[in-house]
């Protein structure tokens, strides 16, 4: 190559570098123009880009690969924006503004949907009829006549109830209730178990622990016996891993408390709802060989409730006959023992260690002894007639206190509306344990827990059936016990499972019981359980009872469907 050609190429290269710098600095004062204007074509020059000056590359001032200066093409050269480009931008922004405006207008123009309570209020005002779940004021239950006052309940003869409710919160393993022979005259036995797990591990750190809680059936006969159940509800409100299942019966925290307490009333009503389900046939729970046992229990988490309620019969495996008192041979017995044991305990070994009377834990109730065997008043029946056009409000009181009396208003526990035979009592052969000797004690079932009321209602005209929560008196006359402000009540109508219903009667300020008691409303509110809208005569059977851990007494009210 000739020397002058080499020099010419160097000059051309330097000129190209200078033009590149001019393009990167269009505002320079020497009047240089972009390459597109110099070409006279009116279009961008897509020729080969000029290399950046070596000094920039060495000092690190060059742009990163793939980056682009705003308003430049991919080669870093300035881009000229025509009128079409600005028109497109204006059109895009106008479109977005219009869409946003339409959305805002549509949102403002849309009517605000009323909530469920507003809809219900409008609907009730329009119809003027009671509806299921409507809240009923306390004044309604004080009107009209009491159908239960002084009346006598009919009871199904021959039934028995195994009741285990004390000690309520056992703190050590043992037998809670022991009855050596539960066979009834008719063969029908109801069991009710309701206890709180207060077991604790007293190691380096005291901590509550899980437990096995329930019943063991004991076959002290010379025959093989099948254990059948007709109805059965059972459950816990806390699992062994500490998971809580039902939270709506939590008590308000007292000042200084940090650990919540649960009354177990929600669980009690869930168990009651399962118990009330219709049972078309008996179901086998287990089989006991002579001298053998069958267990019915729940794994219960620390500080949790365990509740069992069921109807049982015992059949001779060979003959199929239901065992009754008159069919037992001399010395034969079917016993039940309720218990609490640590979760890792071998129950068969536990049973062999808990055979003496001293294994029965002492009752922690000084007022009412709610354990033992009751042989009367398990199922109570009564029929009533009601005319919606003429009778106004009529009430029925159930679950009266054990010591309630209707004779003298000057004496304590006066309740003129109670049934004459509402109280339940029985016997506990292991009521007292003195020097490993069992002494009997009277069973006092305060509130008739485990009993089921069956009311046959023959009604003329559209009728509503309401239930009032308990208004049981408290030690403080200004405020009732905390449980009264948050109650659950369960009932069934006829035999349909779909007609089993639980209502909750709770004060809106219930959680402020200890902090702001003045905000609580007066007790005695209720809710509508069922409505019967037929114009003619109609008959329905209501089944209801005081669920475990619930408070009594209650009042049912028959009222005209029209408010």
Structure description:
This protein has 563 residues and is an alpha+beta fold. It has two domains: 3-59, no CATH class; 135-560, no CATH class. The chain has helices at residues 3-24, 35-39, 54-59, 83-109, 116-127, 265-275, 347-353, and strands spanning 135-136, 145-146, 154-155, 160-164, 174-179, 189-196, 200-202, 206-208, 211-220, 225-236, 283-288, 293-300, 305-316, 333-342, 371-374, 379-387, 394-398, 424-434, 437-445, 452-460, 463-468, 486-493, 500-506, 526-532, 537-544, 554-560. It starts with a helix and ends with a strand. The relative contact order is 0.15. Residues 27-69 and 109-115 have low confidence and may be disordered. Residues 8-31 have a biased composition (Basic and acidic residues). Keywords: Membrane, Transmembrane, Transmembrane helix. The chain crosses the membrane at residues 86-109.
Write the layout of secondary structure elements.
Blueprint: H1 3-24, H2 35-39, H3 54-59, H4 83-109, H5 116-127, E1 135-136, E2 145-146, E3 154-155, E4 160-164, E5 174-179, E6 189-196, E7 200-202, E8 206-208, E9 211-220, E10 225-236, H6 265-275, E11 283-288, E12 293-300, E13 305-316, E14 333-342, H7 347-353, E15 371-374, E16 379-387, E17 394-398, E18 424-434, E19 437-445, E20 452-460, E21 463-468, E22 486-493, E23 500-506, E24 526-532, E25 537-544, E26 554-560
Parallel strand pairs: 2-17, 4-6, 16-20
Antiparallel strand pairs: 1-24, 3-16, 4-15, 5-14, 6-13, 7-8, 9-12, 9-14, 10-11, 10-13, 17-26, 18-19, 20-25, 21-24, 21-26, 22-23, 22-25
